[in-house]
Amino acid sequence: MGQFSDLIKNRRSMRKFTDEELTQDQVVALLKAALMSPSSKRSNCWQFVVVDDKEMLEKLSHCKEMGASFLKDAALAVVVLADPLASDVWIEDAAIASIMIQLQAEDMGLGSCWIQVRERFTAEGIPSGDYVHAALDIPLQLQVLSIVAVGHKGMERKPFNEEHLQWEKVHLHKYGSE
């Protein structure tokens, strides 16, 4: 990508992936982006579990009733965790790390999709976070915010159309102004 504006226009959620695996360099680049993401007071309260095992990807694809089934076809899942005892803004810090992974993926020509875990449930009504904790043996004090699915794009998506920007949601000087 040449410019950041191109990167954010082209980054679209990708739920279809090819069978091609990621290289070690690609995985390292994704994790560097995550580890360089900003955090409040540089608490670095986030942690990441990287999964490329097909059986585990299949298992994690059931972490939500809807909206995670495509994970089984991804080359990689980055489970984004954080420690609420290390930072009162762990949700924000983990969210920033999640989007940094997605932007890095797009910059490398890869597809990605955010899977929301916090405050979601499996088809059986189990909290998604509990399901992921059990599947990956995550310590209890860590909370799961998201899983970022990454892989080679299995389809093309058009860049974001700026004609669809909702400028009415931008307020000048005070709410309700135009």
Offer a concise description of the structure.
It is built from five helices and four strands; from the N terminus they run ααβαβαβαβ.
Give a verbal description of the structure.
The chain is of the alpha+beta class. The chain is 30% helix and 17% strand. The chain contains five helices and four strands. It has helices spanning 4-10, 24-35, 54-60, 90-107, 128-136, and strands spanning 46-51, 76-82, 110-116, 143-152. The chain has a four-stranded antiparallel sheet, with helices on both faces. Helix 2 runs antiparallel to helix 4. The two termini are 34 Å apart.
- How many DSSP-defined strands? 4
Number of distinct helices: 5
Q: Assess the beta-strand content as a share of residues.
A: 15-25%
Low-confidence stretches: none
What gross morphology would you assign? globular
The first-to-last residue Cα distance is: 34 Å
Averaged pLDDT = 96
Query: What Rg, in angstroms, do the CA atoms define?
Result: 17 Å
The largest sheet is: 4 strands, antiparallel
Order of helices and strands: HHEHEHEHE
Strand order of the largest sheet: 1-2-4-3
Q: From the helix content, strand content and strand pairing, which structural class follows?
A: alpha+beta
Helical content stands at: 25-40%
